[in-house]
Amino acid sequence: MERIDKLRAFLVDNPRDSFLKHALALEYVKLGDEAGARHLFEEILRDDPGYVGSYYHLGKLLERTGEMALAISWYEKGMAAAQAAGDRHALGELRGAYEEANDL
Description:
Helix content is 83%, strand content 0%. It has one domain (2-103): Serine Threonine Protein Phosphatase 5, Tetratricopeptide repeat, CATH 1.25.40. The chain is built from 6 helices and no strands. It is an all-alpha fold. Helix 2 packs antiparallel against helix 3, helix 4 packs antiparallel against helix 5 and helix 4 runs parallel beside helix 6 (88-103). The termini are far apart. The model has no long low-confidence stretch (mean pLDDT 97).
């Protein structure tokens, strides 16, 4: 909880910082707070659609909650964002997750 408290404190001073929000969302995932994590990932991608890393994690979260069609949609958006950013590594990870989700 100490890490979460620190991240929240940093966000008070920097409420639009996508990196801090992403880190906090990952902490929520570790705690099993799927709703809290989902809210943050969606907020990041609404406000900063170029923050490519959140697409993958949101998609995986949605897969775990049984929302496969929505997960696939986020993977597609993420692949487009990664391609636009020239982020080949993220594009590969998102493509892999997308293909795996489509095979289920």
